[in-house]
Amino acid sequence: MSNENKYFSRLKEFLDSGTPKAKITKVALCVLAVASAPALIFIAASMGNAVQVFKQFKTSKRFSDRQIKDSINYLRHQKLIEYISDKNGKTIVKITTKGETRLRAFSIDLMEIKKPKKWDGKWRLVMFDIPMRFTKGREALRYHLKELDFFQFQKSAWIYPYPCEDEIIFIADFFGVGKYVEILTVESISREEKVERHFRLMGYC
User: Fold this and answer.
1) Which residues contact 89 (CB under 8 A, 6 or more apart)?
2) Which pLDDT tens digit goes with each residue over 137-189?
3) In the beta sheet, which residues pair with residue 151?
4) Could you tell me the domains of the chain?
């Protein structure tokens, strides 16, 4: 699955999760993005059918029609969406560049790396040498590596036992440091037992 498809998949999983903590504006932006994704069956949502599109997702069902319409108006006011006319003169809702950036940041917050049933015994080594002018991007990458439970092997070298290339590339590219990141798959590392304990892999092969 491509990074783009995984991105939309994360948003759709969130909408189908039924989580009670989701804010209506975040739900609304995700619905409009997923509804207009070419890979999915939904058509781009207009104001006239937006409520019906919302009802197709579990997380959205707890909001009233009025809340949904108000949230869409709020997103427009914040310039996260815009109304445009298609070739038939029909008004549809489009995610703006600002809205897309907000969605991709949220997608990273939702990110989880799938753990296979059986570890293949290999390590994924994420290394980076990011110039000082990209300090914010470097710190953001480190933050998300910690959030995903990577083991810090050295200052700019992090280890994970499962395939994670697509996820890390997505994060690094979002923060503008992708070309400074390398991901290697290695058979063994020094201090391996310490790293195995971190991931609770002792005897798991």
Assistant:
1) none
2) 999 999 999 999 999 999 999 999 999 999 999 999 999 999 999 999 999 88
3) 159
4) 3-110 (1.10.10.10), 123-198 (3.30.70.240)
